[in-house]
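Students often ask why we bother encoding 3D structure as a string. The short answer is that it lets us treat folding as translation between two languages. Here is a chain of 628 residues written in the first language.
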Amino acid sequence: MCGIVGFSGFRPAANILIQGLKYLEYRGYDSTGIALMVDHKIQIKKSQGRIENTEKLMALSSDQFHQSTSGIGHTRWATHGKPSTENAHPHKTGHVVLVHNGIIENDLELRAGILARGHFPLSETDSELIGFLLFDEMERGHSLEVALRRVSQTLVGQWSIVIMSEREPGKVIGVRNGSPLVASIDSEGNVMVASDAQPLLPFTQSVTFLEPGEMVVGTPGLLMFFDLLTGRKIHREPTLIKWTADRMEKNGFPHYMLKEIYEQPKVFTQTLQEVLLPSSSEPFNFANEKNSEILLKAEEIILVACGTSWHAGLLGKYWIEKIAKIPVQLEYASEYRYRETCLRPSALVIGISQSGETADTLVVIRDMKRKGVSTLAITNVQGSSLAREADAVVFTHAGPEIGVAATKTFLCQSLSLFLFAAFLASKRTTQNSDVLSRLRRELNFIPKILNNISNSTIKNSESSEILRAINPILNSLGSVKGFFFMGRGHCFPLALEGALKLKEVSYDHAEGHASGELKHGPIAMLDPSIVVVAIAPQDPWYTKNRSNLEEVKARGARILGIGTYGDTYLQSICDYWLALPAEAQSIHSDLLPFIITPYIQLLAYARGVQLQRDVDKPRNLAKSVTVE
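And here it is in the second language, the structure alphabet:
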């Protein structure tokens, strides 16, 4: 899940590469490095740890280094080899230097051949081996492009690489074989390639997404695309990305995670406006006819996803089955891809992925298409692999999400799935039209409630009303062995997501449970060192939730309740209490997950800040999981 970036143009490259890596750091931050062409020689600065370490090394470099106009950079999520400076990219072999994203599966075989030819790799990585193969091919007289095409045929796995050579200064070449790669050329002729579009947006919103098996060759003023197998030049149409560079800045917030939680009212509205027709006699008509057509054909839906997207899928399953009366399976993509499945011709497989590049989810969609099963994607990224390869796509319109822990994209994924349910209910007449009209009206009111929860005009976390309530609770907890999140019905997926968020950004032990399942084993863990986060609004499952909370109380665990404003009974049995806004009392219970979502996210955020964690870049994680 590493981030790679390359530049060749008419501006100094060093700071451009560093800024590009900062936009890509969500993909991994075990080590970073850049290589620049300086007087026809390649100079490398790299270090274990964050980008700041490499910047310190760059500050000591010559003026010529900082004036170089071509180079490549890398931020690493370690696969082969521990995080270290030796294993950091770029890797240089003779006159060849490269950066790599992905995994080379036949690395042991390649390493044996390289050692037999008298080469001695300096790192533990599979990536460095590619450099020796390229070097050997160029020593046989091949150009950089031809060498890369020949070497690519020997590599097994899903990967992308970007390379330079001292023999061909000013030229940056990239290849995509599975892992994503994007290229652009701006109005001044500056060429860039990167793992995704974000580093390119300060220069141009017109970008080209490479398909697997394609190569891009960039020199100042010229960008060309080739078929990797045949070497034939091909034409690729660029995609216009609606995001702007300013949306990728913190804009005064202490962390991206807090900024992105506070952006939820805005992106909720954007997703509603973009997905549905602005004016229609029916409350839930899709703006995209292809999406309407493919959904209406479905007699069975299979949702495939990973992590937070899976939790959004669980909410979607509940909504679609309740409102639209269509059977839904929810599957972990990493498991489903290896299963022997049996699907009816009328089935629809929906892949959910924030980045649109999640490897396991992509494999499932590709496999379903080969089997003739209809596919649909829910993703946040225009031009992503999932968006291009599924039969239809719904974009979540959440804008760039830099924080590794997904927040606003979870809300927008959940909203998209709710809209599927409501659309299908409308067309299949499984719900009264008055109910659907009420749901549509109240969806329009949700952003106002979300605004009141976060007070999104306030950038200081200490001044936000909800955080002013959360912080004293966390400060009074003292010693905590772990957190159990519990909920029923629509709140069970939120319990799972709340536990995941807390684990991701605080490193506390946290588990999510269906409330009724506590007595089937987990209750053995409960004592005063455990905090139970009870998500228990006054919804159809409220009475059962109350009974489960009494069981928790009897075991001595401390309870942090999240419930309906004015619920004095529930508040009385909780040690700590967070009330939903008063205006949420009139909202349909099916919509309560949208209102509760920022509570569990801000709880995780505040705990991470309290424990002085790097909430934007949690250890060992990467946002775009492009390898198995």
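Translate back mentally: DSSP finds 20 helices and 25 strands in the chain. Keep this in mind for the problem set.
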